[in-house]
Design a protein that fits this description.
This protein is an alpha/beta fold. It has one domain: 3-Layer(aba) Sandwich (Rossmann fold). It contains 6 helices and 7 strands. Helix 2 links the parallel strand 1 and strand 2. Helix 2 crosses helix 3 and helix 5 packs parallel to helix 6. The protein is globular, with a radius of gyration of 17 Å. The chain starts with 12 loop residues before the first helix and ends in a 9-residue tail after the last helix.
């Protein structure tokens, strides 16, 4: 079944789980750069996963994506700045963090990451990147990145887990179910709008 063939009637829990979580495991290999997509809670769930990859010497550079200014406990700042503060508190060197404080959504996260890769490495010198976001958001993020990045750059998924929307529990609580269903519908809409190609489940 293709993503474009999904409807409200055939969107079972099994199908939702397959769309969002199947085949998105981290390979553990070294990369040229780690890319962390922004959100309000990126510092809680995503940044620690990226920092672990950094500390495991999988890459010595991290891109923090997110230009939305939010009210954090430390005060108003961009998502990227909040993520940077968290990463530095966990031991990442300031000079190893690249900042995107312009992007407003997932597509722009990916596009701004591309600009930073070009400016800091040269795209022809980049062969592998690690993409960090929460697991339920990974499919759409990976599809966007694979479509927009040059073909020679391999994008490796590195899912982080939140509390309510994991592969093993999203169906057991209202928050997780609502989030999962919303995300699948975003994937369906992205395919129908041509944001990335249709694909088989």
């Amino acid at each position: 079944m293709l993503i474009s063939e999904l409807t409200k009637e055939n969107l079972t829990d099994e199908v939702i789980g397959k769309v969002l979580f199947t085949g998105l495991e981290d390979t553990g290999e070294k990369v040229d750069c780690i890319i962390v997509l922004g959100s309000r809670k990126a510092s809680v769930y995503r940044v620690p996963v990226a920092v672990k990859a950094y500390q495991d010497h999988r890459s010595d550079k991290i891109i923090m994506c997110g230009g939305k200014v939010r009210d954090f406990p430390e005060g108003p700042m961009s998502e990227a700045q909040n993520m940077r503060n968290c990463a530095e508190s966990l031991g990442v060197k300031s000079e190893d963090i690249l900042m995107d404080e312009y992007s407003m959504n997932t597509v722009e996260n990916i596009l701004q990451a591309l600009v930073l890769l070009q400016r800091n490495f040269g795209l022809n010198q980049v062969h592998k990147v690690l993409l960090v976001t929460v697991s339920y958001h990974m499919r759409r993020s990976l599809c966007i990145a694979e479509y927009l990045f040059p073909a020679h750059i391999q994008v490796i998924p590195c899912p982080a887990e939140d509390i309510h929307t994991r592969k093993d529990n999203w169906m057991n609580n209202p928050e997780g179910r609502d989030r999962a269903l919303t995300e699948v519908n975003k994937i369906i809409l992205s395919v129908k709008n041509g944001l990335f190609p249709d694909f088989e489940l």
